């Protein structure tokens, strides 16, 4: 069997007990043998400032290199005020620069939004669908995934206990694995 594809899962929330982080960890555990998912949080990334591009901070370079070394990216986001969190937009800005050298280029991208409410972060996902095509490789269009009602999906240890969510995540991962294989073919 060939080596698994290396996938970076960007967690668009800084909260220690965030549902987004729990979902990313669940995806890593549910990943088929063809994917190895590295869950990456965004703590420690300073604010993007174009004045720093000539001599970027070490954490920017390390973040960019991690993405460049991957064979695909999953972006996981909660919805904040009908959009993506600022920390995620900042990370996307850092990774997509300097102009023409985006760390996302050529990488197949999957988008996963979530909310404890009924809409599943659909507005945040739609914003990502507007942002990513100009700076990344192909964005998986189908299936789309907007995870709603995630508030009761995990136990006190952060383990996924909601079977319906587990099924949806597994179906999404299977589709993403096929998408990554096709793009890296």
Topology:
Elements: E1 5-11, H1 19-30, E2 35-40, H2 58-69, E3 72-78, H3 86-95, E4 109-114, H4 122-131, E5 146-147, H5 163-184
Parallel strand pairs: 1-2, 1-3, 3-4, 4-5
Can you describe what's shown?
The protein has five helices and five strands; from the N terminus they run βαβαβαβαβα. It has helices at residues 19-30, 58-69, 86-95, 122-131, 163-184; strands spanning 5-11, 35-40, 72-78, 109-114, 146-147. It starts with a strand and ends with a helix. A five-stranded parallel β-sheet has the order 2-1-3-4-5, sandwiched between helices. Strand 4, helix 4 and strand 5 form a beta-alpha-beta unit. With 185 residues, the protein is of the alpha/beta class.
List keywords for this structure.
185 residues, alpha/beta, 5 helices, globular
Cα Rg = 16 Å
> What is the arithmetic mean of pLDDT?
96
Helix amount, in percent?
25-40%
The sequence of SSEs as H and E is: EHEHEHEHEH
Number of separate strands: 5
Shape: globular
Strand order of the largest sheet: 2-1-3-4-5
Largest sheet: 5 strands, parallel
Instruction: Tell me the fraction of residues in β-strands, as a range.
Output: 15-25%
Number of helices: 5
Report the structural category.
alpha/beta
Q: Which runs of at least 5 residues are low in confidence (pLDDT < 50)?
A: none
C-alpha end-to-end distance: 15 Å
Provide a compact summary of the structure.
This protein is α/β, with parallel strands linked by helices and 185 residues long. The protein has five helices and five strands, in the order E-H-E-H-E-H-E-H-E-H. The model has no long low-confidence stretch (mean pLDDT 96).
């Amino acid at each position: 069997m060939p080596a698994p594809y290396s996938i970076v899962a960007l967690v668009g929330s800084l909260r220690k007990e965030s549902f987004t982080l729990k979902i990313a960890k669940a995806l890593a555990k549910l990943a088929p043998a063809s994917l190895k998912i590295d869950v990456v949080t965004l703590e420690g990334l300073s604010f993007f400032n174009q004045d720093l591009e000539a001599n970027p901070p070490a954490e920017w370079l390390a973040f960019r290199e991690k993405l460049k070394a991957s064979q695909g990216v999953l972006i996981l986001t909660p919805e904040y005020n009908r959009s993506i969190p600022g920390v995620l937009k900042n990370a996307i800005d850092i990774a997509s620069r300097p102009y023409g050298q985006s760390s996302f280029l050529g990488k197949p991208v999957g988008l996963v939004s979530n909310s404890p409410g009924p809409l599943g972060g659909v507005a945040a996902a739609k914003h990502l669908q507007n942002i990513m095509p100009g700076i990344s490789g192909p964005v998986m269009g189908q299936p789309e995934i907007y995870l709603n009602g995630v508030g009761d999906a995990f136990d006190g240890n952060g383990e996924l206990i909601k079977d319906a969510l587990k099924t949806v995540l597994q179906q999404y991962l299977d589709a993403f694995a096929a998408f990554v294989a096709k793009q890296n073919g």
